[in-house]
Amino acid sequence: MPNVIVTVVRSAPLNDPIELMLATSNVSLRRTEARTIEVSQLKAQTAERDRA
Predict the structure, then answer these.
(1) Cα separation of 2 and 4, whole Å?
(2) Which residues pair with 43 in a beta bridge?
(3) What angle do CA 37, 27, 48 make, to 5 degrees?
């Protein structure tokens, strides 16, 4: 899913799994699987505009 904002929702106490919010869906992945997600950091103005 290109151009989707990824947010870390929570992490398990022993580090696996990690819950991510991708657009309107929440997914839980092992950290080894989550590492395969390619991300880039948004500029602050872009992130604020997209949340509005």
Answers:
(1) 6
(2) none
(3) 70
